[in-house]
Every structure is written in structure tokens, then in C-alpha cells.
């Protein structure tokens, strides 16, 4: 059946509910170039204000999946697991979690994205390793997962063409932050990528896309239900993004922190956070492991060995491993000192993420070039005690670090007389 796009826009504007046939027609004709951007942007704005039902969101998700190729991972034995984060500051979880899970013999086939604005991207961090290739053909991607049980590559342009077009449109029409469109965007890519099981890391707080836990809970529930509806085992975790995750914010310094964590180092809280996520992923694959059993794979080198296998398989320079834990090498370094005694109460993730971008570690636009050595390394986290003169953080850049930039970091920092504690995992949605 043929529809008129203007009628469909009006239907949603007036609060109507789309049929599967209407959604299929819109997506098919948008990808084909028949429905123009200006009409699709009008529809996105109508959805922004009127929303979509769960059934509509499911139909939209599958219509987007059908707009491109789908990866068939059935030739890989076992339950294939995938993981997605809704984005944050200092989020190097994939760099540790993927090899950790793979070290238990569970295949991890993951496509990741780049950073934009205040959020970092896994691909940019991996590319700070000399020679590492984030592009692989789908047959080579599958072959690597078969061979070593792990691959992390860039998202294929052939998958979910509708999402690529629609996301770019939403980005410039102020229609990004609406739950049905976020959920369908994330889940269409995860479903098309072919894994049997998916862990969703839904970040919430100052440095996250979802600022409050109620919205994060709704998004998580929507995505979990979408995954289950199409036969994917899906679990979501709501995680705290009010402060940066871990100590490093940047690219190469996040690789350094990941390598140290994979070698049994790092803070107790961060290690246990990663282990809890790994436990959920392993559970999705039918493997029951305790937290101590999982931490043992960080301590005994099993996870790091798997990480190295992936780097070598994707053309990373094996001689570079010795240099991955070296201090950042930039023209300018500035230490931020505590100006009062007390306890760190806040390190505002959004402000710190934006500052890292300004230092050269991120992009304001997609065409910006990243400086892999630029970034921020924290010495203290929320809840820790400080004395006057203690170093709280160091800023690294190959451009002059101005007084204005230093002031920006200080604005992100709150020191109080009483210690506070923040949980990393807030809820699990099944």
C-alpha cells in the first residue's frame, strides 16, 4: 500500500498510532530517498512530542534492521555476546570487559562507535595503539571471532542504513533525546550485528545522556523488551555517570588504565564494577561464575592475553605493548592542586568530558582530529580525602593550557567536610 508522508506526519502530530505497514513504508521510502529529510525531520519532531507505543517502537526497530544487511554469526559455536553503552566520560569498559569475558571461552563479537562531544569512543581509544585497524570485512570479523573468540571493530555502513540517515538528521534537529528513537537506534544495530545475547550499559547522571534514573529506567526497560521480543537474551544495567569512570579521560591514557586493570591493577571498586558486568555477560551465555573467579582472570593474565591476541589480530604493533603504560607525552602538563582540605564530593563528569575535548582528546564535530596523548588523569575520586596542596588531577595537551581551561576543571570540583560514596551499578533491568 502507498501512503502520503504528510498524512503520516499529521497522524503522529495528532497523537495517532502507526501500523506496522505505515512504519515499514516510511523507513523503506526514506532510505530510498523518496521521503525527503525535511519530512522525516518533521516526523521525528512529532514523535518527540507525542511519543510511540512499545509496539510502534518494536515495529520501527525491525524496519530499521531490515533497511540494511544483517550479520549471521551462526557459524561461530556457542552463545555470542555483545555489549552496548549509551555513552559517558572515561568509559573504557569495553576495553577490559570484552577480553575478560572472552577469556572464559565466551565469544564476543562487538561493533563500536566513535566519540563525539563530551563522550569518548571505543574506536578512538583503540586507534591510539599503533597500527590497530578498526575496519574489517564481515567475513574477516567472523573469522577472527572464530579464531580467538574476540573482535571489536567499527560499525559497518551496510548495517541499519536507516539509523545512519535518521541519527544524522536527529542530531541537527534537536530530536536525539527521545526514548523510542534512542531505543530503536541502539537495538536495531545490536540486532543486526547478530549476537545471541546483549548487555546494555545505560549510563545515568551528569555525564550521561539520561540525566535522571526514571528516564534511564524507562529506556532500559524499552530496550530489554525489544531485545527479548526478537529472541535476544537481553539485560540492562543502570550505571552511575555523575563522575568520570575510572581515573583516565582521553584515549591513550584510557588504554593505559585498561591495560593496568587487565594486569590485576587498579582500584578495588573499579575492578569489582567490571567483574559484576562480566558476571552478567557470562550469565547470558549460560556460564555461572563468582566475582572472585572473574577477578582471578584479571590477576592471572588470562584477560590481558586475550586483549593482546585481539590487538595483534587487528594489526596492532606488538612492540607497542611495553609503551602503553608510559606517562602521556604532551608539550604541556598542568597539575590541579586541592585548595582546601576535606573530601571530594563531586567531579562533574560533563564538565570534565568537555574539558578533555578542548584539550584535544575529543571532537566537537565529526571532522575534528583527535590528539591521542591529550586528556585528563585523575588522582582522586569522589569520597577520597584530600589535603591542601594534594594533586587531584593532571591535564595534558599539545596546545597551551590556559587559565580559563584550568578554571573549568576547578568548577567541576566540589570538596566538602564529609565523605560521600557513589555506587557504580544502580539497578539491573531484566
TrEMBL record:
The keyword Transcription regulation does not apply. It comes from the Bacteria. GO terms for molecular function: pyrimidine-nucleoside phosphorylase activity. Its EC number is 2.4.2.2. This is Pyrimidine-nucleoside phosphorylase. Belongs to the thymidine/pyrimidine-nucleoside phosphorylase family. It catalyses: uridine + phosphate = alpha-D-ribose 1-phosphate + uracil; 2'-deoxyuridine + phosphate = 2-deoxy-alpha-D-ribose 1-phosphate + uracil; thymidine + phosphate = 2-deoxy-alpha-D-ribose 1-phosphate + thymine. Keywords: Glycosyltransferase, Transferase. SMART domains: PYNP_C. Homodimer. The keyword Glycosyltransferase applies. Catalyzes phosphorolysis of the pyrimidine nucleosides uridine, thymidine and 2'-deoxyuridine with the formation of the corresponding pyrimidine base and ribose-1-phosphate. Its cofactor is K(+). SUPFAM superfamilies: Nucleoside phosphorylase/phosphoribosyltransferase catalytic domain, Nucleoside phosphorylase/phosphoribosyltransferase N-terminal domain, Pyrimidine nucleoside phosphorylase C-terminal domain. Pfam families: Glycos_trans_3N, Glycos_transf_3, PYNP_C. Residues 343-416 form the Pyrimidine nucleoside phosphorylase C-terminal domain. The lineage of its organism: Bacteria, Bacillati, Bacillota, Bacilli, Lactobacillales. InterPro entries: Glycosyl_Trfase_fam3 (IPR000312), Glycosyl_Trfase_fam3_N_dom (IPR017459), Glycosyl_Trfase_fam3_N_dom_sf (IPR036320), Nuc_phospho_transferase (IPR035902), PYNP-like_C_sf (IPR036566), PYNP_C (IPR013102), Pyrmidine_PPas_bac/euk (IPR018090), Pyrmidine_PPase_CS (IPR017872).
Amino acid at each position: 500500500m502507498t501512503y502520503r508522508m504528510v498524512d503520516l506526519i499529521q497522524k503522529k502530530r495528532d497523537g495517532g498510532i502507526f501500523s506496522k505497514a505505515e512504519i515499514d513504508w516510511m523507513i523503506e521510502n526514506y532510505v530510498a530517498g523518496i521521503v525527503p529529510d525535511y519530512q522525516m525531520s518533521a516526523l521525528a519532531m512529532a514523535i518527540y512530542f507525542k511519543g510511540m507505543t512499545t509496539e510502534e517502537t518494536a515495529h520501527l526497530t525491525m524496519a530499521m534492521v531490515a533497511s540494511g544487511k544483517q550479520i549471521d554469526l551462526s557459524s561461530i559455536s556457542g552463545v555470542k555476546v555483545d555489549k552496548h553503552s549509551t555513552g559517558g566520560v572515561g568509559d573504557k569498559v569495553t576495553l577490559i570487559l570484552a577480553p575478560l569475558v572472552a577469556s572464559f571461552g565466551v565469544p564476543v563479537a562487538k561493533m563500536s562507535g566513535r566519540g563525539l562531544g563530551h563522550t569518548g569512543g571505543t574506536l578512538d581509544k583503540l586507534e591510539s595503539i599503533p597500527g590497530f585497524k578498526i575496519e574489517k570485512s564481515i567475513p574477516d570479523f567472523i573469522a577472527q571471532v572464530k579464531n580467538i573468540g574476540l573482535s571489536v571493530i567499527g560499525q559497518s555502513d551496510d548495517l541499519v542504513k536507516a539509523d545512519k540517515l535518521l541519527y544524522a538528521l536527529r542530531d541537527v534537529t534537536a530530536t536525539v533525546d527521545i526514548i523510542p528513537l534512542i531505543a530503536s537506534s541502539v537495538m536495531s544495530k545490536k540486532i543486526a550485528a547478530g549476537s545471541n545475547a546483549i548487555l546494555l550499559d545505560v549510563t545515568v547522571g551528569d555525564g550521561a545522556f539520561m540525566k535522571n534514573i526514571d528516564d534511564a529506567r524507562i529506556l532500559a526497560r524499552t530496550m530489554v523488551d525489544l531485545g527479548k521480543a526478537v529472541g535476544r537474551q537481553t539485560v540492562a544495567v543502570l550505571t552511575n555517570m555523575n563522575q568520570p569512570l575510572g581515573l583516565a579521560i582521553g584515549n591513550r591514557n584510557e588504554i593505559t588504565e585498561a591495560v593496568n586493570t587487565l594486569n590485576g591493577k587498579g582500584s578495588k571498586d573499579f575492578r569489582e564494577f567490571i567483574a559484576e558486568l562480566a558476571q552478567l555477560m557470562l550469565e547470558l551465555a549460560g556460564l555461572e561464575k563468582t566475582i572472585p573467579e572473574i577477578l582471578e582472570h584479571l590477576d592471572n593474565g588470562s584477560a590481558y592475553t586475550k586483549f593482546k591476541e585481539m590487538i595483534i589480530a587487528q594489526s596492532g604493533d606488538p612492540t607497542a605493548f611495553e609503551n602503553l603504560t608510559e606517562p602521556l607525552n604532551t608539550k604541556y602538563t598542568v597539575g590541579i592542586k586541592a585548595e582546601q582540605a576535606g573530601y571530594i564530593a563531586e567531579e562533574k563528569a560533563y564538565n570534565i568530558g568537555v574539558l578533555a575535548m578542548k584539550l584535544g582528546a575529543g571532537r566537537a564535530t565529526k571532522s575534528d582530529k583527535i590528539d591521542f596523548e591529550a586528556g585528563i588523569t585523575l588522582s582522586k575520586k569522589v569520597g577520597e580525602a584530600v589535603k591542601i596542596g594534594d594533586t587531584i588531577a593532571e591535564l595534558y595537551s599539545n596546545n597551551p593550557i590556559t587559565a580559563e581551561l584550568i578554571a573549568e576543571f576547578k568548577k567541576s570540583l566540589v570538596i566538602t567536610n564529609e565523605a560521600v560514596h557513589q555506587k557504580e551499578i544502580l539497578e539491573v533491568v531484566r
